[in-house]
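Example record

One chain of 417 residues, shown exactly as stored in the release files.
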Amino acid sequence: MQPKIDTMVAWLERRTNTNLSYVIGGGFWLILARITDLILTFVLILAFARFIPKDIYGTYSYVISIATLLGIFTLSGLNSPLVRSITRCKEGMLLETARLRITWSLIGSAASLGIAAWYYSKENTDLAFSFFLVALFLPLFNTLSQLILRFWQGRQQFRTHAIYRISFLFLTRASFIPVLFFTNNLLYIILTFFLSHAIFAIILFVLTLRKTQNKEKEKGGTIFGKHLTLMQAAEVVGNNIDKVILWHFLGAIPVAIYSFAQLPISRIQDLFPIQALALPKLSETDNVNKKGLLTKVAKLYILVIPVVIILFLIATPLYSLVFPAYTDAIPYFQGLSLTLLFLPFFLLSSVFIAHMHKRQLYIITFTNIAFRISLFLALVPLYGIWGIIIAMILSRILHAMLLLFFFVRLKEKTSNP
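Predicted structure tokens for this chain:
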């Protein structure tokens, strides 16, 4: 039986020009972790929907969005070069990257203290103390946990990657969700959120650090990572400024409604581990098989289009049954599901990252994000939440067009600029 399976897999690999053993093996574990994330996120938003008032949830979403924006200073762009370094057996870069990210995060902490002081001067003590907590925990917020996953991704040990990710998700959610049952106090909720992330990130990072096999470092990766940080800073702003703009134009409750539409879509998007699978493989060589990659982009639509159709169909019964307090989020959820149609183009962006094409990445990223934010500011005052949805769809179209334009201009044999 096994020889027949191996023969069939080999035939499919020839037909699709794809290493299916790598995709199926790595993809299974990555998708398992992401399905776990989706399930736990579903439980989390269910708890928010049942036990937390809309204005509190909207304020919580606003604070987390600002914290994510301040996370720009943690140099998250170092994550992708770390994958490249680990792939090339430079495992000393794990600790070096952690040191750099935590050091630079102190700038974000200082900014958060400034925001806290401003809200305190306005006698808004809840937000003042919330941003004090952000300042305290920012150095550990989405830094160590991201580096852990990038380390195992670089080693292409996707089973271990999944175990660490599932462990982190389960431990943080198991610590956080019970709090929602007992209190709707904003400060307790935010404190528990950040504290649980910090404690378990430290534990899992120490365990990962003990698995490193050498202390070798790589030159150039850190510099490119800082370039990526500038690019990702624009993306972080573009992906989180929506809630901030909604907060200031419309208030906390519209932020809560939009968050209930946007959060499930973001987790569903994570079920397609396109970059996570592609980046290690593309980093192994400087060659670019443009025809093969474009064929893979086209074939990914076999998966993506049915998912979008299903989401459209199940939205109304799902929200009516599970989130009856948020049924007004249904049309926004359906609108945002259209953004999933552009997921296959993430494969092309992986090429530019793997081969460190800084100029193209700068143009693509800043053009797209500037376009998106301009649309946010223009459309939200006119159309409210629908202004955000329209802007997201139009910016995804522009992003795909820019990726395709620069990709077809690449040479089959690339060099690091």
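Notes: The radius of gyration is 21 Å.
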